[in-house]
Structure formats: C-alpha cells, structure tokens
From TrEMBL:
One of its GO terms (molecular function) is lyase activity. It comes from Streptomyces tropicalis. This is Spore photoproduct lyase family protein. Residues 1-10 have a biased composition (Basic and acidic residues). Gene3D superfamilies: 3.40.50.12110, 3.80.30.30. Residues 21-44 have a biased composition (Low complexity). Pfam families: SPL.
Amino acid sequence: MQDRRGDRDQPALFGIGDLEPAGAPGASPAPSAPSGPASGPAGPMFRDSPAARRMLAVREIHAEPAAAASPRGREIVARFPGARVVPVDSHWRIPGLHGSEGNAERWVRVKTETLVLGERKTFTTRPNGRSADWIAPGPSNGCAMACAYCYVPRRKGYANPITVFTNIDALLAHLGRHIARLGPKPEPNQCDPEAWVYDIGENGDCSVDALVGDNTADLVRAFTHWPTAKASFATKFVNPDLLALDPRGRTRVRFSVMPAEDARLLDVRTTPVAERIAAAADFLDAGYEVHFNLSPVVLRPGWRQAWADLLRHMDDVLPRRVKDQAAAEVILLTHNRELHDVNLRWHPRAEEVLWRPEEQQPKRSENGAVNVRYRTGVKGEAVRGVRDLVAAHAPWLRIRYAF
Ligand code: SF4
C-alpha cells in the first residue's frame, strides 16, 4: 500500500526549483536535473545538458597514452572536444596536479576543469563487512564534487579530480571471476540477506562518473547478469541518466544525507539534500534498491535538532514503497590533520565545525593513516543519540550499522 501522505508531499524530481547557495567560496551546488522525464540512449541525456557541463567543464585531460587510445578513452575524449589532452606517464602523481600545494586555492576549479585517464594496473577486491561484503576495485578515483571532509583527496593529494580507469573490461572480468569463485552467499548478514554486496564506488562518486563516461553503466548492467551479487555505491549527486539503465534490483544506490545546513557548508558542489531524498522514489521505480547513508554525522551545537528535522522530513516525504525497502548506515565524522590544513586555505568556515580537537582523538585507519575521530565517550553517546532519533522520527529506517 502506498503511503498517501508521502506520495502527496514528495515533489517530482524533475521539477525542482532553484538551488540554495553552497557554503564555500567560488563553489556552486550541483546543477538540478532539467524539467521533463529523463531520457535514455534514445533521447538527449542529462550529461549532455548545459547543467551537467557546469559540474564538469573539462578543459584539460591528462591521459596515459594507452588509456587515451582505448575505446573508453576515445569516447571520453570525444565528449569534451574543447579539452586539451596532455600525455602523462602515469595517472599517479601528475606534476602540478597531485600533491601540488598551489591547488588548494584552485580546489574547485581543478575538480571542474580537469580529468585524468589511466589504466588500472592491479585488481584487488577487499573484504569489508560493514558497508558492503566486498570493496571492489573502483572504476575511478577522485571526484568532481568537493565535500570538505572527503577522504578521497588524501589518496592522491590535494584537489584530486576524477581519474577514470579506461580498462573497464578488465575490471568486469576480475569481478566476474571473484563472484564465480565465491558462489552463492551461504547465510544472510546485515549487508544483504541473499547477495554478496560489492561497493563499486569507494574512491569517488559513480553518479558523477556517469557524466564522464559509461563505466558506471557498464557496472550496473554487468551486475544484472550476476544473480549472487549486488553492486552498491554511495552518492551525493542525482544523475537522472542512471534511471535509464535497468538495474533490475542488482544495484543499491545509497543516497548520503545530512541536515541541510550542514550540507550547505560541507557538501560543496553536491545535489542539495532535499533533492537526493526526492529522487529516492524515481530510483526505486527504475529498478534500484535505495538505501541512505546518514553520514557523516558532524557533532556541533544543535546537531540533534537538525538530524531530528531531517529524519522527520524523510518520514514526511518518502513514499511507503521506499520506506519498506530502505536501510541506513550511520557514520560519524572522521577527519585528518593534513586535510584540515588544506581546508583552512580554501574553505576555513568548514573547519569551524569539522575540527574540534577537544572532542576528537587520533585513530589509525586501515591504510595506516592517522585520522581523528570523536573521543570514545563522545562518539558512543552520539551513536546512541542518532539511533534514538531514527527510532523516534523514522522508525521504518532499519540501521544496518552505526559507528
Ligand atoms: S561526493 Fe564523496 S567522493 Fe565526492 S567529494 Fe564528496 S565525499 Fe568525496
């Protein structure tokens, strides 16, 4: 049965009006989808719209020669005919791009105007057990959005625009072998009751990648042929082109949400949170499973009230069919000294809420980096607080895990 209140209140995704200003200097939020229904391969695609070109106005493509010459590389270069192609030996440590301190001030511009094409040399699928059963080798690395807390820039250094891996066939072959070796999932777990879940977007955002090329589409389609597995990716961008891919329930989209006032300050260049929530029913109806990431939870004065308002909004506008299948991850903010220092140079206001040494402690992450997270007592109480808020305001939202 439909949640009538939800259906009445949820605005249509493709008619949403003006966007609110972003919280960082020189940054505008992600463009809204145009009015009218999404078009598939037979019609105009969102990624060819002026709105999409504002998110990615590519002027320079740093490309490994083999990547540029590959079929996927040629497609991408052809999509940005005005861009200068600069040959590079490796997609790692491109001089003047990665690790270049000068890029702190040009943070958003680098993300908008620069692409990197490379070939993935190693394919390793890692066990996870939280967000997904497995972390797949990603089809990209880096992002055109600019969330102030994002750990992705830490990997390559500074702005880290999108690097597209053009050898997608090798990635699909690797995944096919991995899935075949595993066989059926022996027992349910919190990741999924039946399917092995593979996170395909650990180091980027697959929805924005789909503005660049077809790697996301290839992955979504591939998982329709693997009945024991399911793809999953988190996103902060609503890309209506994904609605045409026919995922047949084998891809889980996790819309990341946070209170709007936090997002305006921290989620730079992303789709406004209300639009991400408004898109949920469209994605469900298009054949995706739709979950939510309540993340990152940033502790600041008034955070409980702000999250309560967000959860009440979700309860008000989401239709029953979305609620019935939804689940959520809750992730408290982790931050990092180096990123803090860089952010002070391009978006210092964000650091007023992200960097709270009196409430944070060092934490060594999986890859050996030293991050900071909320102190044990503070964090435990906050996790309980979020659980209580969900129980009070969105009791239909099953929490898969919280940490
Ligand atoms: S959308 Fe994700 S990958 Fe992109 S900047 Fe934000 S946190 Fe990073």
